[in-house]
Write a sequence for this structure.
């Protein structure tokens, strides 16, 4: 059974804004990165999965439960870290997290015990007895994470968990998210507009743009070899490209480089011989890799045109 | 997805060993939605009196409760010193006479219960947990009603025990007074529920605490003034029905209908309206205001 499954999921705000557009996907447990620019529909998707928003059309299930009709059951098993501030300033972290534990249906004693545990896990110690209003942004994000895991959820939905953090804070938060996902075995969805963050902590990536699914695949497949050989020259890139095309290869000049499509190893020799024949000076020869950014460069463009 | 085995790794230090028990899953009981609603109710009731909060948060609710009790305590003390002296207060008129205290408590504490959750976006956390939006609304109304009940029943109990304690024969006095328990406990309930719903129906509309406080005070001042002016300035049917504009008249009328005697200055008797009319209005206030609160939280974006 997939962890999350959506079918033709669409959400419109009013008649003009389409946040999610015919989104169909199946996601298995793991640490899942949900990546997209601001306004791509990440938060909308998370809120629909929580049953906080109703889809305009289409359907979605979380752990086999329908988000519209079984929202209450889903919410008991899900932890949610919203993007924006969500903490009352006049309450201590201990009181707040334990209160949220009880809101998930934990008995009072268990909520207190779990609160002590998760606050230690997120790295809040003495300061947990002080009112949250006096906390730094980093500490607040930790409290937000703590309240999301206090009831030991089966699924964590984290909306921009590094929002507002400085680089050191980001690293710590990402490390925390990674540990929570791997050591505790809690399936986690991390929404972020920063590809670098997703790359670091996630094993699977969902890329959405303008409410449409760009790609869903393991992270590894995004950064694997593309089968493109990059030939960087001092000059004469056009010359080489012509020669290679004449030799029956799929090649094109790109600035000072020539990109050659290499479905097998045959082109390597042809490239070497062509460079030698033309007497060009070679700077670099490399296997091109996909970069996550490429997703949005190429496929995002067609969306804009539509 | 099984939690990993606790890896117990002792780390030696000067004071002893630290055991890293790792993360443990929760395998205990999950009580679900009903328990969550009850927990929210009791947490909100505590918040209404500033319990578990700073001393500053206690000042206003306890101060107002004290104001509610003092006249009853003074009346009890006076009748102890001057036996047979007529007290200005009784079970019928006490709550009517302390309507300004109710208005103050509502203005101060209804926003306390709901404004902060809205202003600080805590609502989106509540709504992502086991409870429904209507559960949140009902838990808050229930908590505020319970707080108002405490506020109202405290002076009533002072009157009750005051009149028992001043008599020479305690047992006989207790026997005499037991019949009044329906008044002592019932009248606060009649006041608490519609007022709580009304106060939250106003407070839920804005995340700004000051606005909510101002709006609640304004509603009580305007309804009292308009009701009183219309009674004076008009004649016939308009004058008869005008007292109903003041919600406190509806509450006193309901108390009159269900539990006891008329209060001279409340305008209930003077209006010569059938008493169930007041009961109907009090019920309508509770239901309509309660529905408005639920509607508000259903519609709110989270």
């Amino acid at each position: 059974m997939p962890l999350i499954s959506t079918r033709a999921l669409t959400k419109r705000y009013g008649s003009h804004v389409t946040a999610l557009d015919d989104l169909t996907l199946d996601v298995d447990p793991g640490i899942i990165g949900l990546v997209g620019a601001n306004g791509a529909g990440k938060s909308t998707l998370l809120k629909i999965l929580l049953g906080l928003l109703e889809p305009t059309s289409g359907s979605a299930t979380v752990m086999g439960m329908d988000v519209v009709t079984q929202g209450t059951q889903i919410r008991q098993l899900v932890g949610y870290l919203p993007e924006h501030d969500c903490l009352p300033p006049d309450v201590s972290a201990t009181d707040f997290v334990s209160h949220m534990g009880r809101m998930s249906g934990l008995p009072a004693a268990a909520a207190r015990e779990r609160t002590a545990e998760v606050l230690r896990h997120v790295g809040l110690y003495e300061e947990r007895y002080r009112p949250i209003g006096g906390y730094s942004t980093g500490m607040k994000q930790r409290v937000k994470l703590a309240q999301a895991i206090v009831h030991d959820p089966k699924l964590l939905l984290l909306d921009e968990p590094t929002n507002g953090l400085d680089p050191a804070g980001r690293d710590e938060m990402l490390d925390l998210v990674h540990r929570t996902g791997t050591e505790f075995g809690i399936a986690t969805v991390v929404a972020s507009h920063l590809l670098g963050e997703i790359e670091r902590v996630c094993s699977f990536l969902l890329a959405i743009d303008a409410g449409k699914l760009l790609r869903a695949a393991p992270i590894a497949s995004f950064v694997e070899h593309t089968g493109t050989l990059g030939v960087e020259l001092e000059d004469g890139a056009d010359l080489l490209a012509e020669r290679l095309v004449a030799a029956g290869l799929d090649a094109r000049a790109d600035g000072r480089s020539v990109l050659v499509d290499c479905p097998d190893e045959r082109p390597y020799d042809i490239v070497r011989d062509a460079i030698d024949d033309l007497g060009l000076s070679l700077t670099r020869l490399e296997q091109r890799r996909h970069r996550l950014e490429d997703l949005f460069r190429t496929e995002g463009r067609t969306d804009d045109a539509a | 997805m099984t939690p990993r085995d606790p890896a117990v790794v002792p780390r030696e230090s000067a004071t002893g060993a630290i055991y890293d028990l790792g993360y443990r899953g929760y395998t205990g009981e999950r009580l679900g939605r009903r328990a969550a609603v009850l927990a929210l109710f009791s947490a909100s009731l505590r918040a209404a009196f500033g319990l578990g909060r700073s001393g500053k948060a206690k000042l206003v609710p306890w101060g107002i409760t004290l104001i509610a009790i003092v006249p009853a305590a003074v009346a009890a003390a006076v009748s102890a010193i001057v036996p047979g002296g007529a007290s200005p207060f009784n079970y019928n008129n006490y709550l009517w006479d302390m309507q300004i205290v109710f208005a103050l408590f509502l203005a101060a504490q209804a926003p306390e219960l709901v404004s902060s959750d809205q202003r600080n976006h805590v609502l989106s956390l509540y709504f992502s947990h086991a409870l429904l939006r209507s559960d949140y609304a009902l838990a808050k109304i229930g908590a505020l009603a319970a707080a108002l009940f405490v506020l109202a029943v405290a002076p009533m109990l002072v009157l009750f025990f005051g009149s028992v304690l001043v008599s020479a024969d305690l047992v006989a006095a207790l026997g005499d007074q037991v019949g009044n328990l329906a008044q002592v406990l019932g009248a606060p309930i009649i006041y608490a529920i519609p007022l709580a719903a009304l106060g939250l129906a106003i407070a839920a509309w804005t995340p700004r605490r000051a606005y909510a406080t101002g709006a609640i005070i304004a509603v009580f001042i305007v309804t009292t003034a308009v009701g009183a002016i219309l009674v004076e300035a008009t004649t016939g049917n308009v004058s008869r029905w005008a007292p109903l504009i003041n919600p406190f008249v509806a509450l006193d009328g309901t108390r009159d209908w269900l539990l006891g005697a008329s209060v001279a200055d409340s305008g209930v008797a003077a209006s010569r309206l059938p008493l169930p009319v007041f009961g109907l209005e009090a019920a309508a206030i509770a239901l309509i205001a309660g529905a408005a609160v639920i509607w508000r939280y259903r519609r709110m974006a989270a």
Residues 33-299 of chain B form one domain.
